[in-house]
Amino acid sequence: MKNIKSINRLHWITRIIGTMMVMFTLFFFIGYLIEGINKPSASFNVYTIILFIVWGIGLLGILLANWKPGFGGILSFISFIIFNILAAINPNPEAGYSFILLIFLLPSILFLIVWKLNQAS
Predict the structure, then answer these.
(1) What is the percent of the chain where pLDDT is above 90?
(2) N or C: which end of the chain has fewer CB within 10 A?
(3) What is the dihedral of CA 61, 65, 67, 68, to 10 degrees?
(4) Domain limits at 13?
(5) How many distinct structural domains can be found in the chain?
């Protein structure tokens, strides 16, 4: 009984962290779009669009993991790994890679842990 409560508590903590990260990202995305509207010179190249799509799939995976921790956790984990690899090999010489982006793997890993613990119990 105590094990089920611990798993349930971890699941809710993971849901809260994941939802907060999705909301945080959406606020930045909306700001980025508003800035793009105000500065017509800002352009999206194919590489940026691919990064946005992969990032969006990762966020969708986090939201999906609220109901299906296994599928959503795997989807978001793979998407964020691909995003980090693509961001690290960015062809733009002015752009730098920040390891802080790896923090977005946290909810994915936690959802996968919750999924495994639910299978074990």
Answers:
(1) 44
(2) N
(3) 100
(4) 2-120
(5) 1
pLDDT digits (tens, 9 = 90+) for 52-66: 899 999 999 999 999
Question: Please, what sign has the CA dihedral across residues 115, 63, 81, 108?
Answer: negative
One-character DSSP codes across the chain = -HHHHHHHHHHHHHHHHHHHHHHHHHHHHHHHHHHHHH-TT----HHHHHHHHHHHHHHHHHHHHTT-HHHHHHHHHHHHHHHHHHHHT-S-TT----GGGGGGHHHHHHHHHHHHHHHH-
Average pLDDT, rounded, for the chain: 85
